[in-house]
Write a structure and sequence with these properties.
mainly alpha
């Protein structure tokens, strides 16, 4: 998706503002060549814009969330039993309390209160 956008940006942001300008005297041959080049650039930009629109539509059609029951068996995760979840939660609480108590003890000894 990024690549077509970069190409479009390099050729000109909008089909009417393709990066081509006519310099010098206005002569019929120069004007024809200028118009031909400008038309080619505009066609290229239009094609890139169509490609970008198609890519956006394809991306929009992509399913964002997959229900659990649609996952293949080998990719389904297994739930922790409630006992092991409670055990892990208890260990986390004990660690948090120990960390808080240690920080409080260190605050009393530190020169600056917020260093602990």
């Amino acid at each position: 998706m990024r690549e077509p956008r970069v190409h479009r940006r390099r050729r000109g942001a909008h089909p009417t503002t393709a990066l081509v300008s006519l310099e010098g005297e206005i002569e019929p041959l120069k004007v024809e060549a200028f118009e031909r080049r400008k038309a080619e650039l505009q066609e290229g930009i239009a094609a890139l814009q169509e490609e970008i629109a198609a890519l956006k539509a394809e991306r929009k059609a992509t399913q964002r969330h997959i229900p659990f029951y649609e996952l293949p068996e080998e990719e389904r995760f297994k739930r922790l039993s409630t006992q092991s979840k409670h055990f892990v939660d208890t260990i986390k609480m004990i660690a948090y309390r120990a960390e808080t108590a240690m920080a409080q003890t260190l605050r009393e000894k530190m020169a600056r209160y917020d260093d602990a």
